[in-house]
Design goal:
The protein is α+β, with helices and mostly antiparallel strands. It folds into two domains: 189 residues, Trna Endonuclease, Chain: A, domain 1, CATH 3.40.1350.10; 150 residues, Roll (ph1033 like fold), CATH 3.10.590. It has eight helices and 18 strands. The strands form four sheets. Strands 3, 4, 5, 6, 7, 8 and 9 form a seven-stranded mixed sheet that branches. A hairpin with a 3-residue loop joins strand 12 and strand 13. The relative contact order is 0.12.
């Protein structure tokens, strides 16, 4: 049977309110555009009336903090067959969108805005994920729901795991006040959105093959940025999870070094492979010098054991770097939308970060 929403006014007794013809029906699309959270999911709107490659228009296209794309289609006065078929058709197009395609859609509909900055603003400073459109979902927005739509959507969702759901809105008027009530047709449907399949361009942002992000943590006096600037290195360790990604840095890579909580403090080129701090050497004034013999301000785990009883590697690993530019921690560069990551090192695909840090440090971006 069709889904129904009830609303009661409570005084000395409960009086049920009857839903009314929704005067907001023509405005519901604008209400969602003004505040996508009305759909219970924080979204950045990519576009409104987004033109597909075959000449049809998606009512609203959005993206969430994880980079998943949301197709939002209003039922209006269409039949269940029409609205569901149209939404599925849109999904077949959306699943093929690459990272660049997603960005181009946003830019077309927001020509004055930068996608990465808008993403950060919308999601409280969270940087854009490397992967965009790894998954997608379909939400049909309706002010009423018939048996046929309910059956079709539940069949697609329950039997074939299609990431489709209906958000039902009901309009109520009472004593001069207006109310909107909402509910999902299927509660907790597909918390893990459907991965975008099919043959398509990569969901990852393109990588220039050179630039890497490095997080240089200063916690517990384990390492010191003045040491890294003076002697030319980056380091990470205290566990395999922390050192594994740093050990993958290739010689010749350009590294953008960020101190978590402060900002970007250096850019340089990897001059040698990673080595445990106990055996690492660095070129100091033209002379290869053992890391342990340097006048260091931090301990770099040199006073702790090299491994745990289970064999886990606790070494601090040191990677030699020839600096192009470094600044004091107090002068670290940061602005909304720049990339940050919990990994010690990863490929830097974030064009905004590369260009802004290079500009701030007066370096060439190429």
């Amino acid at each position: 049977m069709p889904l129904e929403i009830g609303l009661w006014r409570v005084t000395d007794r409960a009086t049920q309110l009857a839903p009314s013809k929704m005067p907001y029906e023509s405005r519901l699309e604008q209400l969602i555009l003004d505040d996508p959270a009305i759909l219970e999911t924080e979204l950045l709107i990519l576009g409104h009336q987004v033109l597909t490659s075959y000449g049809k228009f998606i009512d609203i296209l959005g993206i969430d903090v994880e980079g998943s794309v949301h197709i939002i289609e209003l039922k209006r006065d269409r039949t269940p067959r029409e609205v569901v078929a149209q939404a599925l058709d849109y999904a077949s197009w959306v699943q093929l969108l690459s990272n660049d395609d997603v960005r181009e859609i946003f830019q077309k509909h927001h020509p004055e805005d930068d996608f990465d900055v808008a993403f950060s603003d919308r999601f409280g400073g969270t940087p854009t994920p490397d992967d965009l459109n790894e998954a997608h979902s379909i939400t049909i927005v309706a002010s009423d729901l018939d048996d046929s739509t309910e059956r079709i959507v539940q069949y697609l969702s329950g039997s074939y795991s299609v990431p489709i759901n209906v958000m039902l809105f009901r309009y109520f008027a009472d004593q001069g006040n207006s109310y909107l009530a909402r509910t999902w047709l299927i509660e907790d449907a597909h918390p893990d959105l459907q991965s975008a399949g099919g043959k398509r361009a990569s969901s990852k942002a393109p990588w220039n093959g050179r630039d890497w992000y490095v997080a240089f943590g200063l916690e517990n006096n384990t390492r010191n940025w003045l040491d890294a600037r003076t002697y030319g290195f980056v380091s990470a360790g205290g566990g395999e999870w922390y050192s594994r990604s740093l050990r993958k840095l290739p010689v010749g890579a350009r590294v953008f070094v960020c101190i978590p909580g402060s900002g970007y403090v250096g850019v340089g080129t990897v001059a040698g492979p990673a080595s445990p701090a106990r055996v690492a050497t660095l070129g100091v004034n033209g002379v290869q010098t053992r890391f342990v013999d340097l006048d260091l301000h931090a301990d770099y785990g040199l006073d702790s054991g090299e491994s745990q009883s289970d064999g886990s590697d606790l070494n601090e690993y040191v990677v030699p770097v020839i600096w192009d530019k470094t600044v004091n921690v107090a002068d670290a560069f940061w602005k909304k939308g720049l990339f940050a990551n919990q990994n010690s090192a990863c490929k830097l695909r974030h064009e905004l970060t590369i260009s802004e840090v290079a500009r701030a440090f007066q370096l060439e971006t190429a």
